[in-house]
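Q: Could you write out the predicted structure for this multi-component system? I'm mainly interested in how the pieces pack against one another.
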Amino acid sequence: MHTAVNLWPLIGVAVIIAGFALRANPVLVVIVACVVTGVAAAMPVLQILSTLGSAFIKTRNLPLILLLPLAAIGLLERYGLKEHAQASIARIKSATAGRLLIVYLLIREVCAAFGLTSIGGHPTMVRPLIAPMAEGAAEARNPQISDRLRHRVRAMAAATDNVGLFFGEDIFVAFGAIVLMQTILRGEGLEVDPLAMALWGMPTAVSAFIIHAWRLKRLDAQIERELAQQIIAAAQAKGASA
Amino acid sequence: MIFKLDYFYLLLGALLLMVAAMALFDRHNPRRYSSALFWALYSLIYLAGEQLPPVVAGLVMITMALIAGFGGVTLGRYGSRTEEQRRASARTLGHRLLIPALLIPLTTMIGSTLLKDVKLGDLFLLDPKNATLVSLGCGAVLAVIAACWLTRSTPLQAMREARRLTDYLGWSVVLPHILAVLGLLFSEVGVGKAVAYLVTSYIDMDSRLVAVAVYCAGMALFTIIMGNGFAAFPVMTGGVGIPVLIGVYHANPAMMAAIGMFSAYCGTLMTPMAANFNIVPAALLELPDKNGVIKAQIPTALPLLVVNMALLYFLMYR
């Protein structure tokens, strides 16, 4: 029965891998992969176009989440939302970028576990609040923070939102993934209790929190180390000139 | 229903049309004609929607991808306020600035949990199939109103600011959308079956450790290729999970499924194909490296994948 498997569609996967390896523009890579996959499946040109077109219309709900909040967020940024977030976190003496993001990771993961996935998000929370606060806390520790480390702090803010969401939502019983798993296993003749699947997700969810929180602590250590190096370098420069 | 998803498609279409018009008249944008065309085509997808013939929509999508891919969407000038001005208004407005920002997640949360089944007369308040998206749309509109009121600006200014942000996002705005199309196309032509066939016919799964590792790593690898764990799960579960882990080694199906899905999520953290989680945030946060978020996630994802393998190996009989 295995001889019936058609391996031609894998050319589309090869295009993706080659495209990303060559660092070509991702949009071009994906569109070429779309066309190549269609051709490999022996579709006529018009059918490729109409398959792509109807899928494009069908999936247009996806960008709503990203695009609709931008007007409000943009307007608030014009009136200093980022600056306010940075200033308020800098006033808290014990706040560090790592500690702040650990608290956010905990909130994000616990909320997602209770089905409240809309509490975070990149356009609505990370860009306007979480990333500026993390950056503000890092800057309060080290005003001369390097651009490399500043970008690292921002990237970790986005990563924290993803980790919290992914490994929290899968232990929420009514979440789509659990329903999907149940449907697929039922199709194979296996009846599985959704609650059992949610419970078996917990060890991974806890591990995800521990691993990522440990990395956030190390981010703090990195910021401190850079500060120490700058102080040493400044002292040496002073010594050399004296 | 009173609030339909279609209204928000039209709203976004109108917003994108405004973005296109503003790009067209922005003399500081070096490629204003191609930028305007890109946004106008995208607005057509939302304004015309299902009335558009599929072939035309396909042409629109390819044209947009070519404009974006060859650098045809560029930045203009946005009349931004200086950092001093922003700091000054941050001082006067203070914590009140947070209210409109938090209105979006708050409205989405309340709408999608409490108001999901509310009816006025015979009509659902929110489109029941799309309660979360519709609540998010309502939240976004409420937030614009609150922000205008708070800062005494106009909705037109809000649109200008929306354009500033969409322009910064540039091509990464459409990347998740066309990736979703590619995902649908992949499953239609049977990419999943082909990959599962290769994995199962070339790897010897006589030892339990190898079988567990193939299942977990396969989930992650497949998700890296497809950009979506939901596409990987049926393939790896049907190809390795059920015949080998359950059939030969008698694993607990609930345990295996849960660990399998989480292994797929480890893959999601490591792939540019999951653009809305990994590439769009890098653009939103104005990172110079478009893979910056992925690089920040790999050291979390890889140890977690090993943890998953260990959990499945040691606990599969529970």
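A: Regarding packing and overall arrangement: Residues 65-241 of chain A form one domain.
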